Amino acid sequence: MYPEISIIMSAYNEPEKYLRESIESILNQTFKDFEFIIILDNPNNVKAERIIKEYQKKDKRIVFIKNEKNLGLAGSLNNGLDIAKGKYIARMDADDIALPERLEKQYKYMENNKNIDLLFSWVYFIDENGNILKEFKPSKEKIKNLSKYFFKEHLLVHPTLMAKSEILKKNKYDENQKRSQDFELWMRLITKGYKFDIIEEFLLKYRVLKENYRSRIKKQIEYSKYSLKALWKHKKYYWKNIYYWNNFLWHFSIFLSIKIVPKKILTILIKLKGR
Fold first, then answer.
1. Which of 37, 62, 72, 158 has the highest Cβ tally under 10 A?
2. MF terms per GO, please (predicted)?
3. Which stretches of the chain are assigned E, i.e. beta strand?
């Protein structure tokens, strides 16, 4: 028999503590009927491979894939989608922690609301030591009217996703998107009329790592580059939306100004934007 849920998680170079916490948080879920597909996207990470196989020996629900070469997040997740057997797909990141009833609550919600295609949840943002930094609580009203609010503010946390399997299999991640893979996918699914929803409960702890300003600037430039690519790709669907153009101009200004704006000012701008 096929499992009800396929959890898909890509690992790369996460610290051992984070990887173990993430894996254990899934294996200790109150809902038991799942397969846990873990893709190692760094074939040279012998330690991570050893850790994953250690858990696999103890729990046969783990399906382990090692990429022959680094594919990036989109390619790794697509590999997982290709073999997933579950009725629903759930996402997980290798440094986050799922709360014990996450799968059970999302599964019951999807079963009781057949019109919903993609389901998310509230999250706790945590630091390196697991301490809660803040709560992230998007409203159900905004998620259900996502086409209206999508470009106004950040609303969806990718690793809280549970979706109907056939939808993600038909609409895979764009492997040309090295960053902002989820951003591009949400835009694409919105244009196709799929229904988004959220459980207004905390079901995941999302780890936020400290970075020096150089690292943060570099990541923001990459994020803006691929967000621009995604925005331009879908412009014909959103070109009348003023908030779309606000997003486009924001990312364009960041991408363009790196050569001419002092890094200290750029850092302030990014903090003000809240990215």
1. 37
2. hexosyltransferase activity
3. 5-11, 34-40, 62-66, 88-93, 97-98, 118-126, 132-136, 162-164, 196-207
Measured distance CA(34)–CA(214) in Å, rounded? 40
Domain with CATH 3.90.550.10 in the chain: 5-207
End-to-end CA, the chain:
43
Amino acid at 245: W
- Smallest Cα–Cα separation from 124: which of 64, 178, 203, 40? 203
Cα angle 157, 161, 162; round to 5? 165
Alpha-carbon distance of 268 to 70, in angstroms, equals: 33
Report the relative pairing of strands 97-98 and 34-40 from DSSP bridges: unpaired
- Interatomic CA distance for residues 82 and 177, integer angstroms: 18
pLDDT digits (tens, 9 = 90+) for 186-210: 999 999 999 999 999 999 999 998 7
Looking at CATH, the fold of the domain delimited by 5-207 is given as Spore Coat Polysaccharide Biosynthesis Protein SpsA; Chain A (3.90.550)
Structure tokens at 233: 């790709």
